[in-house]
């Protein structure tokens, strides 16, 4: 299989499986959360569990899909590693960002930082961390920890750069997080979603570029 084809397929599969799974899980969780306003704590707990379950399934599918592109890999190990690492990590980071956001914005304002600057300072590193851990889990499962480390570095930094690029481009186009009309246009949701797509494409492509093309090629 040609290198470009592997890179493209890896990028598209990462978007479809992980971002698609995240959006589906978040949508279902939001519905559950909205229907359980009379019992908010129970509804929130169920929503998190359901969202996490969807992400576990999506992570397993992603690992199997990438393993099909990876010559001489271990699909079962990759599936286990992705399921038990990627999904919990995404849930934990999402909950942490949700809980810490008000305090971080307030602290940023106290130091003279605008909301869009605080947003970038928080979400870009979070994207790097998420992509790096996910790539390491997948890479170590497919081959060995050494490959997982190289994949983590490549995927983490490319994902972070892609996310930051989207933030800057959308800011220049008038979609600034924290702007006076940001709430009306759901700017943060739009920018974050676009950034996630870009980060997934970049990280998936980086992983695909590192996959060996033959059984004899070092991993």
| Overall morphology | globular
Determine the number of helices (DSSP H or I, runs of at least 4 residues).
Answer: 6
Radius of gyration: 18 Å
Classification by helices and strands: mainly alpha
Give a quick account of the main beta sheet: strands, pairing sense, barrel closure.
Answer: none
Estimate the strand proportion.
under 5%
Task: Jot down its keywords.
globular; 219 residues; mainly alpha
What does this structure look like?
There is one protein chain. This protein has 219 residues and is mostly helical. It has one domain (3-210). Helix content is 82%, strand content 0%. Helix 4 runs parallel beside helix 6 (187-210) and helix 5 (145-172) runs antiparallel to helix 6. The longest helix has 36 residues, at 75-110. The mean pLDDT is 89.
Structure described in brief:
The protein has 219 residues and is an all-alpha fold. The chain is built from 6 helices and no strands.
